[in-house]
Amino acid sequence: MKLQSVRGTRDIYGDEAQLFREIERQFSQCAKIYDFQEIQTPIFEFTQVFKRSLGDETDIVNKEMYTFEDRSGDSLTLRPEGTASVVRATISESLLRDLPLKLYYSGPMFRHERPQKGRYRQFTQFGVEMIGVDDPVGDIEVLSFAWNFFKSCQLDQKVQLEINTIGDDESRGLYLEKLKSYLEKYKNDLSEDSQKRLIKNPLRILDSKDQSDQKIVAGAPTLADSLNLESKSFFEQVVNGLEKLGLSYQLNPLLVRGLDYYCHSVFEFTTTHLGSQNAVLSGGRYNKLIETMGGPSTPGVGWAAGTDRIALLLEKPKKPHHTLALIAATDKGKDHRFQLLDELRQEQIPSQMIYSGNISKQLKKANKRNCSYALIIGDDEIERGTYELKNLLEGTQETLTKSELVSFLKKQDWGL
Ligand code: HAM
Questions:
Q1: How many other CB atoms are there within 10 angstroms of residue 195's CB atom?
Q2: Which of 144, 324, 327, 365 could bridge 373 with an S-S bond, Cβ 3.0-4.6 Å?
Q3: pLDDT of residue 319
Q4: Which of ligand 1's atoms lies nearest the C-alpha of 302?
Q5: Residue nearest to atom 2 of ligand 1 (CA)
Q6: Alpha carbons 38 and 338: distance in angstroms, whole number
Q7: Closest CA to 221 of 200, 197, 237, 202
Q8: 111 close to ligand 1 (CB < 6 Angstrom)
């Protein structure tokens, strides 16, 4: 049997690997500007960490988790998302004594979903969690961070922010009753999935992709009409804050999100460039999650973005990684090259040797390997103490001493 990667997993290399690095670089730079600190949590946790937090009836817990028993008989799960792990860490590391916590993270997540473009079983997320701020400024700040990230990647024209409120427990409880009694009337016309959700998780019927469900939902009572004063005022403050900062948004009254821990603001940055997997960043407020997981009652708000999807939106990297090729013309040249290569690398000049072939073959390989310069080293060059530096992009050539060579190469933009 030919070995291959597991369905829904991918090897990331070349241009795409460079895009991943660039996304992470822009994200961690934004994190510094917004004063968030990095946290790294394990890739797997006790299964309870996710079961307790995400909700027993969510798709993730019900059918998407990679859960296994380890050799000690413990039930472990590969993390399907970052929020539950971060919250678990803040409790077990006693970080909640010093609030607010502004944390950021990135890394692989695992969900057993049906793979398609932009949806994988192992994917990369980066995200932020602001813990201990119950004021709407927290929501506004994390959304401003998200917009700034998209601006720094020049993606702000390709995404839009959709936002909604699902209110506090009281408002949502009231709404769920109204929604259920409305949907009961159309029970038999709902899709199979939605019929199941009617019993276990009726809110999710609002964002069903099924067309006949959508027709039924169009006549349903709205969440906005069930909001109590506090929930209404909270959301108004969030939206006003966005307006004050000039951050554009669209209200989407059907946005409810697929995880149980949310309350008040829920939001998604979507794009029209990716087909059906159109959410590139999503999140919301979670004021009960920390308590549910055994910590003190502490509010939180945050989001996570899909690196794989954002990489699909970006142009191929403009500046390929250029290097200098060291080409040996003789055996002596080979020896000399070995040492010179080391000296150049110590000076932070990206350089490589072409391992085999005569001069013209080595030059051809250098061109293929994206080298912008080539240095040919033969016995004459070693004797004279000067080098012939070829500019492979322009076809010019210059004779330089070693110190001239080093100072010239150090001044070049290598895209490091
Ligand atoms: P989520 O909506 O499940 O939220 O995932 C966040 C983002 O991860 C999505 O918007 C999408 O870009 C990406 N994503 C999700 N599943 C996949 C997949 N199978 N393949 C590729 N990309 C995917 C959360 O995970 C929450 N923890 C967000 C959050 C943080 N809420 C508060 N704080």
A1: 15
A2: 324
A3: 64
A4: 33
A5: 282
A6: 40
A7: 202
A8: yes
Ligand 1 neighbour 287 (Cβ under 6 A): no
CA distances from 345 to 101, 336, 350, 407, 414 (A): 41, 14, 6, 13, 12
Look at 124-138, 209-223, 278-292 and tell me which has the smallest mean pLDDT: 209-223
Average pLDDT over residues 308-322: 86
Q: Which of 20, 60, 81 to mutate to test the pocket of ligand 1 (most atoms within 8 A of CB)?
A: 81
pLDDT band (50, 70, 90) for residue 388: very high
Q: Over the chain, what is the mean pLDDT?
A: 95
Inter-residue contact 247 to 139 (CB < 8 Å)? no
What's the CA gap between 373 and 255, in Å, rounded? Answer: 54
Question: What is the rounded distance in angstroms from the CA atom of residue 234 to the CA atom of residue 265?
Answer: 9
- Gap between the Cα atoms of 240 and 57, Å rounded: 34
Question: Contacts from 116-120 at CB under 8 Å and sequence distance 24+?
Answer: 116/276, 116/277, 117/274, 117/275, 117/277, 117/312, 118/274, 118/275, 118/277, 118/306, 118/308, 118/309, 118/312, 119/277, 120/8, 120/9, 120/10, 120/308
Query: CA-CA distance, 373 to 326, in Å (whole number)?
Result: 9
Query: What is the best residue among 282, 290, 298 to mutate for testing ligand 1's pocket, by most ligand atoms within 8 Å of CB?
Result: 282
Q: Whose CA is nearest to atom 25 of ligand 1?
A: 81
Residue 286 DSSP class: -
| Sign, Cα dihedral of 88, 94, 99, 104 | negative
Give 281: exposed, middle or buried? Use CB within 10 Å, 0-12, 13-18, 19+. Answer: buried
Ligand 1 centroid vs 281 CA: distance in angstroms? 7
Give the model's pLDDT for residue 416. 77
The protein residue whose alpha carbon is closest to atom 11 in ligand 1 is: 306
CB of 125 sitting under 6 A from ligand 1: yes
